[in-house]
Design brief:
Helix 2 links the parallel strand 2 and strand 3. The chain is α/β, with parallel strands linked by helices. About 40% of the residues lie in helices and about 10% in strands.
């Protein structure tokens, strides 16, 4: 069912408005930017990229190639301390997971909001997010979260396309498919080790980037020692009960009992669109 979301437009005329695309390096970022540029041109469009310092090396090459293809520029922002997600978890003393991931707030939302505050006027700026038609139920919270800047999400409107179609369109204009997509990951973020991802994502990471999995497993174990609590990134829901599932336990399960793996548990990245509880991010 299509949901109509009221979006406050920038007050000034077409030529005066800045168009800022929240750029993650994923295919929906590119598709959103393409739509914005087609409507408003390149001169007033900025691709705002918040670097988590945990990205796949190929993402930076994709950013450069995509920006050149679109005819505009990527503006990089980052945490003032250049932390990665694991360092953020230690500092805030909370292990990120699919429900609450402070890395989204600290490494994505805060640097982007600081850049918007320093370089734009909310009455002459539109912020664009790359959610598609399947996620438009999230839009009201996103609009509230980015206030006072008005928000638009072009991919929530027709023509409705999925990521496979968008990737095919990118290839048709000469862009390579980002490595994480080629390896079967659902998102081109955080090197395939997003704490919002589910068991299927982590199983894939263990298979194709075992060194990244080992680092995440060690970081999770360190957080458990630091907090003195039975916490984990993942959850085990077998048997009708929900329990912590550590990355070490998941690895053992993959190695010994792969049939117990929940291959349907693969959450999505929502760093620019997540609305973390402020008390958890503080």
């Amino acid at each position: 069912m299509t949901q109509s979301i009221p979006i406050r437009r920038a007050a000034r005329t077409h030529g005066d408005v800045m168009h800022v695309v929240m750029w993650s390096g994923g295919i929906t970022s590119w598709a959103t930017a393409r739509h914005v540029i087609a409507q408003h041109g390149t001169a007033s469009t900025v691709l705002l990229f918040a670097d988590t310092n945990a990205e796949d090396e190929d993402l930076y090459a994709w950013n450069q190639a995509a920006a050149e293809q679109l005819g505009t520029r990527v503006v990089r922002v980052a945490d003032e301390q250049e932390r990665d997600p694991w360092q953020v978890f230690e500092d805030v003393r909370w292990l990120g997971n699919t429900r609450v991931a402070q890395c989204s707030h600290v490494l994505k939302q805060e640097p982007c909001r600081a850049w918007l505050t320093a370089h734009t006027d909310p009455d002459a700026t539109v912020v664009y997010v790359g959610i598609d038609w399947s996620e438009q139920h999230r839009l009201p919270a996103i609009v509230d979260g980015w206030a006072p800047w008005p928000v638009d999400a072009p991919l929530t409107r027709p023509p409705y396309q999925d990521k496979h179609q968008l990737l095919a369109e990118a290839r048709a204009v000469g862009l390579p498919t980002p490595r994480l997509y080629r390896l079967g990951f659902a998102h081109n973020n955080c090197g395939g080790a997003c704490v919002r991802g589910g068991q299927a994502q982590w199983a894939r990471l263990l298979e194709v980037f075992p060194e990244r999995y080992a680092r995440a497993e060690a970081a999770e174990a360190k957080m458990r020692r630091l907090l003195g609590k039975d916490v984990s990134i993942l959850r085990d829901r077998t048997g009708g009960q929900t329990r912590p599932l550590t990355l070490a336990a998941l690895r053992h399960r993959i190695e010994q009992q792969p049939e117990q793996l929940d291959l349907f548990d693969e959450s999505g990245c929502g760093c620019f669109t997540a609305t973390e509880p402020r008390e958890a991010a503080a």
